[in-house]
Amino acid sequence: MTATLDPVTLAVLKGRLEQIANEMDATLYRSAFNPIIAEAHDACHGLYHATTGDTLVQGTSGLPIFVGAMAFAVRAVIARVEAGASNEPGDTWLFNDPYEGGTHLNDMRLVRPIFRDGKLFCWLASVGHWLDVGGNVPGNFNAKATESFQEGFRIPPVKLVRKGEFQGDIVEILSANSRLPQSNWGDLNGQLNALDLGERRLSALLDDYGTPTVEAALDAFSARAEALMRAEIAALPDGRYSFDDFLDNDGISDEPLRIALDLTIAGDAMTLDFSRSAPPCRGPLNIAYSTAVACCYVALKHIFPHVPANAGVLKPITFVIPGTTLLGVSAPKPVGGYTETILRVIDTVFGAFAQMAPERANGSPYATINALSLAGHRDDGSRFVMFSFFGGGLGGNPEGDGLNHGNNPISTATIPPAEILEAAYPVMFTQWALRPDSGGAGRHRGGCGAIYEIEVLAQGGADVFLLGERGKFPPFGVAGGKPAAMNRFVYDTENGPKSPPLVTKIADIHIAKGQRVRLESPGGGGYGDPHKRDREALRRDVANGYVSPGAARDVYGFDSEIG
Question: Phi then psi for 310, rounded to 5 degrees?
Answer without folding.
Answer: -150, 180
